[in-house]
Specification:
21 strands; 9 helices; about 25% strand; disordered N terminus; disordered C terminus; about 400 residues; ten-stranded mixed β-sheet; Purple Acid Phosphatase, chain A, domain 2
């Protein structure tokens, strides 16, 4: 039975804000896996780096020693204190690595990420509720690797969406039950623009990922039909989408139109976009949050040269609050972080200001802006206070 088993709706709902934790790509393989207690063999099939331990060396060359046999909560660093303090109702990430010991690397693919299943406690250390799997790395180690990934998540008690043994399993949402308040439903989708090979698409009788062949009206209708089958009053629906390239701030018109149509026509309450290695602009459309690219969160890219102007070392923890009664956005706070020594840490104030200025610059076209609070948290503003047209009634972020 898949992790997306339906849960009964609570008989008595208490309508209140639901707080989510969202972030971008969590790549716990390769160098990250090598510092954990149970690493896979480090051999790689990349054109230039043939040993995963080299990625640890790159990071140490830049920022100093990294512990080996690190505890499972090590990589989360200061993020754990934020998660404990805020106690979000559901924690959703894009897990961009296979969790497997499979040696069947996908032929012709330049990068193959994997983490040993015995290191799965790194996922429960947060602890995560849902991992989106419709991305360009979940099948890096073949169909046996995908099967072991979902089985490992099942055993760990982590829900997933976006990949599975056949099309029905890949399309199925993950459910997070919130007793007395409804549910959070996470659908996971991927596109070829993010690097997902077309042959990875799940089909009846064939394992794979929930791949969108395009961002057409037909795709909107398909998603709308999925949502209508399972959504109940008081449920919050997240469309987690792996789309677009790794670098650059431009949001394709096709992405924006598709996000709007999912909200208007398909019953989606929040767009959780990822694939970009850095933070990009945020939109609030008709009081629904659209994250076009969350940026990376956990990776082993530290010390790899190139694209420094995008500050891929900086991260954001996104904490949107949603009114469970109507699905409208009630507020968004974002905590600036950085990745250093393979550990997520609170960003320095100057880096938080850099992220604020970035969000203001890139959010201008969307009518959104960010303010830095006294505790170095970024607060999203939109509508009249965001400085432009938000596509819906004006309001501020609180």
């Amino acid at each position: 039975m898949e992790s997306t088993e339906r849960l009964e709706a609570p008989k008595d709902r208490i309508h209140s804000d639901i707080t989510l934790f969202l972030c971008g790509d969590c790549m716990t393989g390769r160098g990250i896996d090598q510092i954990l207690p149970h690493p896979v063999p480090p051999h790689l099939y990349e054109p230039y780096v043939r040993d995963a331990c080299r990625y640890v060396e790159f990071a140490e060359r830049l920022n100093g020693p990294i512990p080996r046999n690190a505890p499972f909560d090590y990589v989360w660093g200061d993020a754990l204190a934020e998660l404990r303090r805020r106690a979000p109702d559901a924690k959703v990430v894009n897990l961009e690595t296979a969790v497997t010991t499979s040696e069947e690397h996908w032929p012709g693919k330049g990068i193959h990420y994997r983490m040993h299943p015995a290191n799965a406690p790194v996922l429960t250390a947060a602890p995560l509720d849902v991992c989106a799997l419709a991305n360009n790395h979940v099948l890096d180690w073949g169909y046996p690797g995908l099967a072991e990934t979902v089985e490992t998540l099942r055993h760990a008690g982590v829900r997933w969406a976006g990949a599975g043994r056949d099309l029905a399993a890949a399309e199925a949402p993950a459910f997070v039950d919130l007793p007395g308040r409804g549910r959070v439903l996470v659908f996971s989708f991927g596109t070829e623009s993010s690097g997902i090979p077309a042959e990875w698409a799940a089909a009846p009788g064939r394992a794979g990922v929930n791949l969108l062949p395009n961002l057409s009206g037909r795709a909107v209708t398909r998603i709308g039909n999925m949502v209508r089958v399972v959504k109940r009053r008081g449920d919050i629906v997240i469309a987690s989408i792996h789309w677009g390239g790794n670098w650059g701030y431009a949001v394709p018109d096709a992405h924006r139109e598709f996000a709007h149509r999912l909200i208007d026509e398909a019953g989606v309450d929040l767009i959780h976009g990822h694939s970009s290695h850095h933070v990009i602009g945020i939109e609030v459309y008709r009081e629904k949050l659209v994250l076009y690219g969350c940026g990376d969160f956990i990776t082993d890219y530290e010390g790899i040269e190139g694209y420094e102007e995008f500050r891929g070392d900086l991260r954001l923890m996104y904490f949107p609050r949603i009114d469970a009664l109507n699905g409208r956005l009630a507020g968004v706070e974002m905590v600036p972080m950085e990745m250093r020594n393979f550990r997520v840490r609170r960003a320095a104030r100057r880096d938080a200001l850099w992220l604020r200025d970035l969000l203001n610059r890139e959010g201008k076209r969307f009518g959104t802006a960010a303010e830095l609070s006294g505790d170095a948290t970024l607060v999203l503003r939109w509508g009249e206070r965001g400085g432009g047209d938000s596509g819906g009634p004006g309001r501020n972020g609180r």
